[in-house]
Amino acid sequence: MSKQAVSFFWFRRDLRLDDNVGLFHALQSQYPVIPLFIFDDEILDKLPNDDARVSFIYENISKINLELLDLHSSILVRKGKTLEVWESLLQEFDIKKVFFNKDYEPYATARDNALSKLLESNSIGLYTFKDQVIFEEKEVTKADGLPYTVYTPFKNKWLEKYKSIAPVQEYDLTELFVNFHKNSFDFPTLEQIGFKESSIKVKAHNLKFIANYQDTRDFPAMDKTSYLSPHLRFGTVSVRKLVNWAFHKNEVFLSELIWREFFKQILYSFPKVKDHNFKAAYDGIQWRNNEDDFKRWCAGKTGYPMVDAGMRQLNETGYMHNRVRMVTASFLCKHLMIEWQWGEAYFAEKLLDYDMSSNVGNWQWAAGTGCDAAPYFRVFNPEIQQKKFDEKGIYIRKWIKEFDLGYGKPMVEHAMARDRAIATYKAGIIK
């Protein structure tokens, strides 16, 4: 008996049925569409079995599956090494076309290039689409076609291009849902995938504070941030809908979304930045890289309340307020003279919203080694940051329970650390 010819849509960083570009096009192919999600062993093998991000992914593909069941369809879930999974699928199904939305990180592009070759060798059409950004790859460049390496001119060009097409097209898929393949695939439990539910949860996003975003965003105790970042990272919200909305609501909030695209463009154009300094002149800096100091920073036991509160919030919840991220990152690199890669890797383990391009970009900004970074001689004073942004200690007391019982002394004196950092940078920068 011959197999039914089908198209596949592969969910990745786009965990929604609403306003999904690749899915929109897949459902217009002449074949019924089988939705697919792959739990990739190359990624999962590095994670603890209660990783909160895996729980969040599982929760959202479960929601997608429930919506598909109402359409007499379901999502096909597989686990394994991606290319091996696809080789197996080619044996099981008569796949004519494969659709997915692009991912720009180095691992993802190498993985997708390998799949492209496999599909081509089997005469299967591959169709990829821009979905997680407004402008991708080389769409926002200088007049000579080279990528921007400074944010402000990138932002200006980005806004110019956006205004010329605003609002960006959003995609209504509702009438196309009849084109899903009618099936009832077994949906695995989280335990069958090799994980268990995490006690750490991703919060629902909240846009009600955006009108006054510029006035409240720097004060962690106010807790008036959107909590959008994990949802953007995994695509449970549409960036097109968000940008079209933010353009009319708040310029500062929109600028943060443009920063996100700037860092994606930097990683795409300069992939070395994922683990090397953007500015090679900084490669000669002699870092201390003291492991005991690093452990104290990780545990939130530096003696600087703003730093310690931030690290404890991260360890307990997977979140850290953006202002506090700057303070903790600067402290690691400038006060402790530990290179940014150590901190970037720790944040990669813990952050619910971990996104390589933004994490790397912001860590290099803090260290002074990145494009358009804070100058090396700018050293955040954690005590002044505390007085400016948590004057009453509300945020600090929330995360440091023992604060009022006599808190420990700072592990390093600020003035000495600042002078040491500036002298070390100055001596190490390659002229």
TrEMBL record:
It holds the Pfam family DNA_photolyase. Transmembrane segments: none annotated. FAD binds at residues 213, 225-229, 253, 256-263, 353-355. GO terms for biological process: nucleobase-containing compound metabolic process; response to stress. The keyword Lipid biosynthesis does not apply. The keyword rRNA-binding does not apply. Gene3D superfamilies: 1.25.40.80, DNA Cyclobutane Dipyrimidine Photolyase, subunit A, domain 3 (1.10.579.10), HUPs (3.40.50.620). The record marks 287, 340, 363 as: Electron transfer via tryptophanyl radical. It comes from the Bacteria. Residues 5-134 form the Photolyase/cryptochrome alpha/beta domain. Its cofactor is FAD; (6R)-5,10-methylene-5,6,7,8-tetrahydrofolate. Keywords: Chromophore, FAD, Flavoprotein, Lyase. Binds 1 FAD per subunit. InterPro entries: Crypto/Photolyase_FAD-like_sf, Crypto/Photolyase_N_sf, Cryptochr/Photolyase_FAD-bd, Cryptochrome/DNA_photolyase_1, DNA_photolyase_1_CS_C, DNA_photolyase_N, Rossmann-like_a/b/a_fold. One of its GO terms (molecular function) is FAD binding. Belongs to the DNA photolyase family. PANTHER family: CRYPTOCHROME, CRYPTOCHROME CIRCADIAN CLOCK 5 ISOFORM X1. This is Deoxyribodipyrimidine photo-lyase. It comes from Flavobacterium micromati.
